[in-house]
Amino acid sequence: KWKVVSQKLLPLVWSCRYDTPLVLTIVKILVILTKPLSAAAKKAGRLVIDVKSGKVPEDVIQGQIKLRDNALEQNEMLVDYKRTFVHHPSHIAKSKSGKGGPGAKKSPRGQDDKQEEGGGLLSIFVSLLAEPLSKTGTERTDADHLTIELVLHLFRNLLSAEPIMTGTAEKSCQSAVLHQELISLFERELVLDVFLVLAQELESRENAQYNLLLMEILHHLLRTQDPTQVARITSAIATKSNAPAIEKVNKGQGPAISPSRTPLRNTSGPPASTGSLRAQLKTERQNLRAAAHSRHSHFGGTLVVTRPGGRRQYVSASSLKPGGASAAEGGGDGISASAAMSSVDPPRRKNRKAEPFIGFGRSSASHTRQGAVISSNHEGGPVTRRAQQTLNNFCGKFVNKCYGPMMKSLKNEFRRDSVRLEESDKLVFFRIIWFFSQWWRVSRGSKSAQIESEGKKSNSAVGQLIFTMDMFTFNLVLNSTDNFHQRKKYSDLMQAVALYHEMMQLLQEMYLSKDSTEHVMALGLMDRLFYANEPLDRLPKLLSWWSPGTFTREYLCDLVELCHVTLKLLDTNSKSCQKDIPADARRKHKFKDKKKREEEERRLDAVERMKNTAAEFDVSSYFAKKIVSNQLVFMYTRLLTQYKINSHHINHHIVALFLRLCKFTIVQEDDGSGGANDMRDPGKILIGGKTVTLEPMLYNINLLTTLNDILHDVIIRRDKDYSSLLSFATLIMRHFARATESNPMLFIECLFRHPAPHRFCELSTNMYVSEELMMIAEREVLLEEQQKLMESQLDEVGEEDQMHESSEEMAPDNDEEVEFGGEGDELWPQCQKQTL
Known about the structure:
Elements (H helix, E strand, L loop, with lengths): L3 H12 L4 H14 L5 H7 L12 H29 L2 H9 L13 H8 L2 H7 L2 H5 L7 H19 L8 H20 L2 H10 L10 H12 L4 H16 L33 H16 L11 E4 L5 E4 L9 H5 L7 H8 L37 H34 L9 H30 L16 H16 L3 H22 L4 H16 L7 H7 L7 H34 L7 H23 L2 H9 L2 H11 L7 H16 L1 E3 L14 H6 L4 E2 L7 H11 L11 H20 L3 H4 L7 H9 L5 H39 L14 H12 L1
Antiparallel strand pairs: 1-2, 3-4
């Protein structure tokens, strides 16, 4: 209310900028005033008060209302302080004139004008760090440390100020634009350079105490940014600069005019010098006439939407366009109309089965198809592009010079479980690593063509990111996934899984790297993750933990990419190790130095051992026993329903896994070439075994309905990105139709989820003839053969008895002995044995 910061403190800093003690005192006051809200205050600001039920006493309700209003008012004051710093007159004048631009006037007065040309208000605080940072070792005093800490805390407080409750799309847009303007201002005032200098020297003893503070500053600096968009901003700007200029043609005014040139004056009216107001009115009148040519252009209307609280909100027709261009044109810098639409009428989630994903309106550029309007961050205005360009340059410098020292210092804090750590520091650490890992991967892919054209070759695949590609970081991430799931912190689990996915992507690049050291490190990490007696792999658990209505679409995209990278890496390593084992066994490097030769032999022995273990690893068994399940098919089907929003590689990963299921054989076909000595079971000979794959797992109503929608979508038929998806949908539908011709029960089976997928695939392929039925058939065949044998033997015995009786009748009366040498005497004991 008193406006102490804007009308008292900041003008005092600007006028007394050379009085260092006074400026430091004001900095202390500013740090206290801009201190971030506590967790309790943020919780109070988001508190939902129960007024209608009548179960809560009136005094408690009044206390809650007062507590919430105080928290919201304090938060609004912090945002207002941030706006005061960003929109300070010194910063606005500098941004208009530019550094050394034509707007900058030189004055013989010297020092004052140099200060005005040199920087704005923030440059005064940056100048306070010049002397303390120049001192090293024991030369830096406690006063110097206090100065550095105060200025860094002030910058941290400005970055962390954000509204608790956005409420409307306009307020959210203003907050996002203000933060982006602050990032651009930090670049102009050399604040980002100060961060780079400190992070680069974190290994020194005098700067080690600032590691957690710098980590928090980086978190607030990057919290609203998408690393993929930041990495692609350079190529986007280059594309726009190389685009042909749009030519505008004025009717009856001659040739086309380029937008970069000054448009010709309209000579039909009086000159501007003699009647400027008259010419302006005539131009406005002509514009009105030109706009009235469209049908129904004189009619207009406003849509009023009544909100649940009784409030009214006006919706313009332009905000309902799919492109969402009106928000950027109407002052909402970089915020598309989808955010306004979501605030007007947000869809309500009825149940988990109807909408399996949470977080409506949020997406990542790496998982979203370009051109799909799903998030307000995808379409950016000039302020957004400047901020992304600033962060892109900052990330390039930070990764090359500061990433290694800072990550080693932070890992030491987590390794010894420092008392300085807070509960949220682990998640902040994960997000920073995730951001730079994804930025590195995307920017490296966009710069590969430029590097090849320039002839620069770099064997390293991960650069300084190798400092976080160790077993300590993997253990920290994987153990955190178990902890977050156990405590049901699903938002934290999503961040940990996103980092795990990026680390697996970097592990694949390390494995394919030309640098032998990185390749050996990748083999060691894979040996501990997958091939050890107690592997650290969490992929099967993560796939089983997914449930509809609990996680976001981005989390499922991370799981899909993680599964694809893991299986691809295991397949590649298994095939490579099976081929390279003999060659590695014979390979011996010759060194003159005995110690180097022994170290190389010891290293080769470890590599050979890891390769032997990898060659013996059964990837098919791992896939069939730990990955394949009905849950997996259901997850992928749910994600495939978003095929229009998914990026091309996400749809490709889904199709790749489904094709892997179709080609995975669980029972090999029996050709029946047993010959006379065929020792197969009679039941199997009678039935005739077929090749059984896991393709019947795809014959479920959810996937068939999704594939039917894909085949009937006219928009994607001519799009090359969907060619593989359309081919797969056609293949599955054709196979299902053929399978139902021989087994009509599949029309009923597709409606249910089967608990044992392998057994279901085998039964449906063999017409429900199971092993039990085969054993029963085998038993019946054996009983029939035994009965036939007994009947034949009894018939032979009866014939011999008849022959014996007839011979006695034809014998003479004298008592002469007649000897029989027939076969009856031999068969009789056998018959007795059979009957017994």
